Amino acid sequence: MIGLPATQRALVAESAKAPHQIKEIPVPVPADDELLIRIRYSGICHSDMGAYEGDWPAITKFPLIGGHEGAGEVVAIGKNVKDWQVGDNVGVKMRNNVCLSCEFCKKGFESNCPHIVNTGYGSPGTFQEYMTIRAIEAAKIPKGADLASVAPILCAGVTIYRAIKESNVHPGEILALTGAAGGLGSFGIQYAKARTSY
Ligand SMILES: [Zn+2]
Ligand SMILES: [Zn+2]
């Protein structure tokens, strides 16, 4: 990959609860269906703590590079990927791979896929300078967007956004948000307010 470094810095935990260490590791090469992304900003989610502490051993791989809410730009593209260009802004979400064949996937509930691979759990996450992600799971981010503000939306934001959408609340109705002063709650207040206009 022309113009890209061979190695990068990543925050690595060798095993559950082992100290995080900044290590020099290879810059990954994207598979045919993947993007290589230069991460500019990453949020830290409470679920990162769960991965690090080994709370979900079935879906977490060690050595672990955590992080599942990131924003950056595309720097290389797998040969089968369409509709992405080098230089595009891109967002990284928790989900990085599903089977697209099981009952959940077919109904649009891919997050419940028993074969799911999550970014920052089963595949290396956003706590590194460069990462690969399946192009189909990457989020398009408009040019000129403030990537520092975008990063935490990719987990905390979409989580509460989906909950509000599923609640089917309409303008004029009351929405109760438990823990509204927290991270998701503060996003929820903003989304609920915006939703009064449509
Ligand atoms: Zn999260
Ligand atoms: Zn599936």
From TrEMBL:
One GO molecular-function entry: alcohol dehydrogenase (NAD+) activity
Keyword Transmembrane: no
Essential cofactor(s): Zn(2+)
Entry GO terms, CC: cytoplasm
Keyword list, A-Z: Metal-binding, NAD, Oxidoreductase, Zinc
Annotated PROSITE patterns: ADH_ZINC
Superkingdom, natural source: Eukaryota
Keyword Electron transport in annotation: no
Residue ranges of domain Alcohol dehydrogenase-like N-terminal in the record: 32-143
Pfam families: ADH_N
Gene3D superfamilies on file: Medium-chain alcohol dehydrogenases, catalytic domain (3.90.180.10), NAD(P)-binding Rossmann-like Domain (3.40.50.720)
PANTHER family to which the protein is assigned, alphabetical: ALCOHOL DEHYDROGENASE 1-RELATED
Name assigned to this protein: Alcohol dehydrogenase-like N-terminal domain-containing protein
Source organism: Diploscapter pachys
